[in-house]
Q: What sequence folds into this?
């Protein structure tokens, strides 16, 4: 797994360095005190999930040699009261983060292939990470 280094640059902007000298800029929108110079952290989180879903579905279809032409993943995130969350089984107090998604597959696929690709969409590694226990260890000196 590669290392990611995030360094503040100006106001709320941060430079993200990763891979082989690759960078991207993250920021908050102007109405939240940033300049809107890049995606905000939650947008990056959704992009990571959507990208992983698309790649997982595409790789599966390629292995099966199915005629998948395109995958589109629409995602949104909101913070809601746990008591208002019908799907929540553990959290009943406070807030939970709810991610809504819609996965569309295009191509000359059978109904069975489409159904299987929707199942596979739930098996991407980022989805599994976000739905399992996460430990963030502090390595600061």
A:
């Amino acid at each position: 797994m590669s290392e990611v280094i995030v360094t503040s640059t100006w106001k709320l902007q941060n430079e993200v360095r990763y891979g082989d000298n690759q960078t991207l800029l993250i920021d908050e929108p102007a109405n939240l005190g940033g300049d809107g110079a890049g995606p905000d952290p939650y947008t990056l989180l959704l992009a990571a999930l959507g990208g992983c879903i698309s790649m997982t579905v595409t790789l599966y279809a390629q292995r099966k040699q199915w005629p998948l032409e395109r995958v589109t993943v629409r995602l949104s995130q909101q913070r809601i009261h746990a008591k208002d969350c019908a799907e929540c089984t553990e959290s009943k107090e406070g807030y939970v983060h709810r991610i809504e998604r819609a996965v569309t597959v295009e191509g000359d696929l059978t109904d069975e292939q489409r159904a299987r690709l929707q199942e596979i969409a739930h098996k991407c590694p980022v989805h599994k990470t976000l739905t399992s226990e996460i430990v963030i260890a502090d390595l600061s000196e």
